[in-house]
Amino acid sequence: MERGEMLAVCLLLWSCSVCVVTAIQRADMFPYGTLSGDSVLMEGDDETSKVLPLPKPLYFYNTQFKELYVATNGIISPLDLPMEKQYVDDGFPTDFPVVAPFLADIDTSDGRGQIYYRVTETPSILNRVAQEVHRGFPDSKFIPTHAVVATWENVAAYDDHSVKAGPSNKFNTFQAVIGYDETDSYVLFLYPEGGLNFFATRPKESYNVEIELPARVGFSRGEIPYFLISRIEGPHYSVTSEEQSVKNLYQVGNTGIPGVWLFHTGNRNSFDNIIPASIGGLLATSPSKGHGFPLETTTPEYAEFEEYPDNTFDPDNEEEEDDYPLTGRDPEFQTAPAGGDHSEPLQPASPDAPSSPSEHPGHQVLYENKDVPLTSDPGYGPEPAERQFAPPSPPKAAAEEDPQQPQVPLEVVDVYPPHRNEPRLSPGGHVVSVDEEDVDFDTGVIHYTTENKETCARFQQQCSQNAFCSDYATGFCCHCRPGFYGNGRHCLPEGAPQRVSGKVSGTVTVGSTPVQLNNIDLHAYIVVGDGRAYTAISEVPEPVGWALMPVAPIGELFGWLFALELPNSQAGFKMTGAEFTRRAEVIFYPGNERLSIIQTGRGLDDHNHLTVDTVVSGSVPFLPPGAEVTMDPFKETYQYYPSVATSTSVREYSVVSAEQGSESFSFQLKQNITYRDCRHDNRAVALETLQITMERVFVMYVKEERILRYAITNKISPVGGESNQNIDECAEGLSSCGAHAQCVNLPGSHRCQCQSGYEFGFDGRTCVDMDECSSSPCHVNARCINGLGSFQCQCQPGFYGDGFYCSQQEGQTVRPKSQCELHRDSLQSGVELGGRPRVGAFIPQCDSDGRYRPLQCHGSTGHCWCVDSSGQERAGTRTPPGTAPKDCDRPDEPERPKTYCEQHRDSVQTTSPEGYPIPGVFVPQCDDNGQYRPLQCHGSSGHCWCVDSRGQERPGTRTPPGTPSVDCDRPDEPERPKTQCEYHRDSLQTTSPEGYPIVGAYVPQCDANGQYIPLQCHGSSGHCWCVDSRGQERAGTRTSPGAPPTDCDKPDEPERPKTHCEHHRDSVQTTSPEGYPLLGAYVPQCDDNGQYVPQQCHSSTGYCWCVDSRGQERRGTRTPPGTPSVDCDRPDEPERPKTHCEHHRDSVQTTSPEGYPLLGAYVPQCDDNGQYVPQQCHSSTGYCWCVDSRGQERRGTRTPPGTPSVDCDRPDEPERPKTHCEHHRDSVQTTSPEGYPLLGAYVPQCDDNGQYVPQQCHSSTGYCWCVDSRGQERRGTRTPPGTPSVDCDRPDEPERPKTHCEHHRDSVQTTSPEGYPLLGAYVPQCDDNGQYVPQQCHSSTGYCWCVDSRGQERRGTRTPPGTPSVDCDRPDEPERPKTYCEQHRDSVQTTSAEGYPIPGVFVPQCDANGQYTPQQCHGSSGHCWCVDSRGQERAGTRTPPGTPSVDCDKPDEQVRPKTHCEHHRDSVQTTSPEGYPIVGAYVPQCDAEGQYLPRQCHGSSGHCWCVDSKGEERAGTRTPPGAPSVDCDRPDEPVRPKTHCEHHRDSVQTTSPEGYPIVGAYVPQCDAEGQYLPRQCHGSSGHCWCVDSRGQERAGTRTPPGTPRVDCDKPVPVAPTQRPESVCERWRASLIEHYGGKPEPQQYVPQCEPDGQFSPVQCYGETTYCWCVDQDGREVPGTRSHDVVKPACLPSVAPPTIRPLPRPDVTPPTNTDVILLYAQGQKIGALPLNGTRLDATHSKTLLTLHGSIVVGIAYDCKENQVYWTDLSARTINRASMAPGAEPEILINTNLVSPEGLAVDVKRRLIFWVDSNPDMIESANLDGSGRQTLFDTDLVNPRAIIVVSSTGTLYWTDWNREAPKIECSSVDGQNRRVVVSDGIGLPNALTYDSSSGQICWADAGTKRLECIFPDGSGRRVIHPSLNYPFSMVYYRNHFYYTDWRRDGVIAVSKDSSQFTDEYLPDQRSHLYGIAIATTQCLSGSH
């Protein structure tokens, strides 16, 4: 059979015979039109009806609505609709509620169709709706009270009418009918035959591409609130998915009639999603037209079917089609029938036709077919009770095949699951396959089969992610993976506690009083490991709370689902999973009250929490308030059938009350639980019974919290499985169980089991109370109270709820969370993992006060430990699982303190973050008592040495690896004490890590007695000088090399004042703290008169040069050593250009600020032609080497001093590999970037074979020492210059251990990272035995003091240099207390860790009595001053060095107070800690009277300026250095106001605190009139450019330095006025943004011409797929081409003519007192107010601004001016409200995204926010005085207002992470947050002057709220705005611009209702809004 001849399938509701059904005709639609009372929607493309108020509310989903809107585009909504561009071209769902019979871009313009709508109570309409609903939902008792009928008749698609071929002849007709009563709503969609002729519409900007969007049919709830401030996508339901499914709308249906679709769309109590009618299946229209129709699926459940490209049924391909799923049901539960006569008609379920499902032939169970729920559809959840219906019945004979099969007792089972072997019902009814051979064309009867098999390959996604799928003969099943449990569709992790949440609703009659329960919360917590289930229902009214206490079966469901499993049993969740329906009936005796309980499992949420909703209805006995209910443990037997479990039982309970005492009652419970199972795995279907034991039942109602609680412990086990021969040890009293334990009899033995709430202790036998609170079962805002065998959850103060969920009460304050609670809550809420708690994480336990519990246990690992108050674990208290925990109340036992060795060792071991030592670090070894082991060894290097008791190395005991270690028990030998000179000398000799001095250092010479030799000479420089007994240089005794030394025995003579040359020379000589020059420094030579010798020479390098009288080198006169020097009397001659060598040489010579080379630097030698001399030598080190023409050293040519140099003319020879010594030597030589060695560095000497010479010597210092084969110095072999060297062939001898003094001394010597002491450090002196010399002296400062045997200074023994020292042998005398001066002095002296003062610090001088010496002097700076008795400096007594000091005995003269100038000057001068000014700071100059000198100059920069009497600079008087200064005595002329240029210039010049510009800043240049010079140049960069009169750079005029500049007087071609963006450009930008900014090569991007028009040829990206378009971008038919050559397209639009845009001027409304000004893109609109009503008739455009985007708007009521921000031009502007006024630009620089704007009328200021740099700025109303208020802690600032009356600024920041509203004073002070809680996108902000509150409109929360500035009194004015942007307040009304309505909306503050709206004719977004009044309002802002 051909595919086109395929027959359509038609299923009727009450018969299985096949018939032909005709689609509805237009006459069959509900009556419509004006004669029926309909309103007619206005013609147009995007129209929305006026509000259609409903006589009674309508429930859509579960939300109540009171009004509807009908829209052109085929939708109905209970909310006012946004512009169509926000939804019509987007996918489904919408973000607002919608009923969509045909959502597409429809246009009724030009009379093409009509849209009718009405709400009606006409009986005929309501009766017809009721009939349709009863046919589609047979169990429904729905009787509509109202209906809404909306009809779209002959409407057209939007772009059909614009095609040049003429208007389209494709029109659609369809209808939507909403019927509703007080609880439910249903919707009918009607599509008459021939009513749908177009099925998709083009997006409005798809012009030249054939793109069509299929119509969307369905329902959307829209966005719903989520956690107060945010919103999420709500539920939705789609009937269509692509164009083919739209075409089928009138060909099929779900009501038995093609083209008629019925849906249940809302319920007052609980409603998850749309439920389609389920009768008759999907029906096809008559086959007489010659073609069939596909069995198109129409609900989300058919997604699998729709994935196949060809889903049209084809009998010829039956075998192929068998693999396709043809139902939307879960295939897991669809089985093929075992047999039967399929031609027999299916009968509907009825009491007379019992149904009997069968899993296999011969295995059938008889069911009563009453109230069977349809529970097998996961897409919608079970139907409510009144909506459920039964499946069709199988043949009657099936019930008689197996009489042995037990039957379900009818008195127990009230509801049953669908039959297992019947095809499952889909939302559209039965869907079957058709066998072509069974079709009888004459009778129209179609036979069908149901042999479609589902496999894992296609349906595995229906299994849980923690399950695996298995295929079986008849289908597939899901099974949970190991470690999880469930039914395969839902799997939970084993061992984890389970949470349940849901709602409880219904009506319960207590006595005779009905009580409504409206969706109150239910929460349950189940400890799965032992079957304990805790249930809490909150907000239960008091009479019902007491009465429901006996109804424990509400919580028993959770006990059965998660019961503790005994052998050969399983809990309910393993069968039901998370989707089930439980129906129970409770009959109370003796009163026969009946209560129905329906509990529906809705599935698992993202956190694996189970959702269960509960509906209760009926009556319960009255219980007196305060009664207590107790229930004894009991057992209940469950019987299991396929897909259902049932039980019946009778319970007894006792009620104890004050009125009645104790009474006993009972109730009977009948229940069944229906669920879906999977029997494809051929499990036995034998009847199964299990027994559940409820060992403990606890019920309680808490009146104060209105919480009803159930706690039940459950175990499940087989029934009657015990052996008759077994001895019951429990019954015989033979058990070993103790208190709180229960005996469980086992075959041949017994088991002890702890009672509920108890667990085995560490001994495994004793039952101890289980701390349920340790697993944190309660809400984060609740506290858990553990009791014996149970626990309670109580909400924290300020919160209410059942403890499992707590919410905050309004107005309540909450105790701040403790550290423990914050710790616990962060882990419970999963903050660290993005909201998911970390599995197995330790959750700390807190007590009721929020403190850490002393004993903490890890719920997963079982470890326990004690903690302190901060939660830190107490060491040694951790115990593993199964061991007794520590007693945390017992205090820690004291440990012995760590010894010094252990602390040393542990500090090394714990320095790494991981707790182990840094690799290679020495770790000291300690003995058992913690003392240092005498022999210490380094584990990494192998070195060993001896230490003393303090761990200090004993000198001479270190041995390298592989050599015998020293005997550490042998004592050290004594030495004689060193003198100060020897210490000084040795301190320099031993400062290097290798044991030798710093290179080139001066080494003092001592005589045989260790005293300083009177004449000291520097071995490197040749200078000599005389010293005193302390080694201090005697002034004037220094002589240069070659000159006769001074007679050091001759006393000093008075000197004449030093000249500049002598100062220069001496400053070099005295720069070292020790009094000798820096190494290798150049020392200028002066003649006898102190003048510079004309020829200067460097004593170290041998270079000579000529100098002038100031000592400055004359260029070109420098000569290297050994060459004739220049005649310095000959004048300079012109020079030739320098060569590379000369540049190199001179760069070295000129690097010093003084004009001489760096010390000891290598200076290259150049020949007469300036080329490098082939052989270069270093004048300081004596090394020589060869270089190439570029001065680069040739490898292998370097020779040390005293060795023959290499022949540099000989070419290089290949070298052998370098040895370690040569590498060492060369690494020293090559460490400098210029290729020469570091200054004075030691260069190792290697022999001919490259090995280290055994004896090494330092060429600069003359020291020599022995080295081993690796070049390491052998200890004790170093000898100073001039002494016999050690025989390096003699082996080392051991040394005695060092004493404490020697360690101290040596530790000082090795404190530098390089291994030598810090300069000027104090080095202790030790005697021959290594003990401290009783008298210690500081070699640098000359101070001496006595020490004890430990080297500690004896108090009062310190003497300054030049004073007799204390007799250190005399014992200490009692000291008087220190005076303030002595304390001051000693605090300075003892601040250093080594016991000496910090260098350069001022040390006060005290007399013998400890009082301040009247005159104090600073030893370093030479300044002296007088002090009072408190040591405070006496003003005016400070004298610099070299000037006579003040007589401090003369009393102070009457000092006048300091003037402002003197305070200013002195504040600068005293800012340094040493008392002198900071270098380079500007110091103001004052005259003798302390007044500012009229002219001030900056000593460093040379700038001068005039100042007034206050020291303020007089504008225009500043002159640069070298320019004539201004006459400061000439009075100022009247100053004209500063121009914009001068403001700009001065703002730059005055930004520095010192009064001069920031270095490198651009300073604009102004002419004499203050206007910008036409050409501006940047002084630092040299760039120049032309500017206009506003200082704005003219494009294309910038030139870099050194290039010709542009003539700024020549006019620049002016570009035409900016045109608005064209359609082509807008579309292009939109698509590029859609592609993420980077279109692929094959993606289409519109091509536009320079004038914005469409290019005639358009192509897909870089492909050759091109076509022609017209001027509107529409494709020209027949022009598509795939060739390499693009199609020839002719432009169809004339070249554009550039015309000037109209001049913008103001046109205000007339005769109006109050106007709302609103910003709308390129215009500012004016909307008058008539009272508080919007006067739309007199609205007009105030100002048109082409090319602008006006955002912020504000009004100045004093000057009648409007201010605005322009986002496009990046400017702030204003204009007068007078007719004809023109705009004025105020600010046009440094703006990026100016948005909100405010005017301070009182202070004449403007404020604005810039949302791109995130700043808030202010300025005067004319734009001057601009300043930044805030540029930190802002993310997305938007609205800003100013309250002039209080001087307060408020603004919003819609930072999505932390939105807030802040305030400050208008000067930027006192910034604080006003509100940050419960806000989302605070766009709009205003001030309610009547109440003094700040109000905002939030586009995130959709609320309008107000609050007092102090954060109190917050209230919601309106809870559901659309999309507010800006807002203003006036006369108890709020007026805001709305982006959804694109208009102005009015809200009454009093009624909280919308009162008015204004929608401009031109629909586009409105931005800012302001109010303009003829008189200023109170509190204007």
UniProtKB/TrEMBL annotation:
Residues 349-358 have a biased composition (Low complexity). LDL-receptor class B repeats lie at residues 1760-1803, 1804-1846, 1847-1891. GO terms for biological process: cell-matrix adhesion; epithelial cell differentiation. Residues 307-324 have a biased composition (Acidic residues). GO terms for molecular function: calcium ion binding. Gene3D superfamilies: Green fluorescent protein, Laminin, Thyroglobulin type-1, TolB, C-terminal domain. Residues 307-408, 872-916, 952-992, 1034-1075, 1112-1155, 1192-1235, 1272-1315, 1352-1385, 1434-1476, 1514-1556, 1595-1615 are annotated as: Disordered. Residues 496-726 form the Nidogen G2 beta-barrel domain. The keyword Secreted applies. Keywords: Basement membrane, Calcium, Cell adhesion, Disulfide bond, EGF-like domain, Extracellular matrix, Glycoprotein, Repeat, Secreted, Signal. This is LOW QUALITY PROTEIN: nidogen-2. The lineage of its organism: Eukaryota, Metazoa, Chordata, Craniata, Vertebrata. The gene is nid2a.
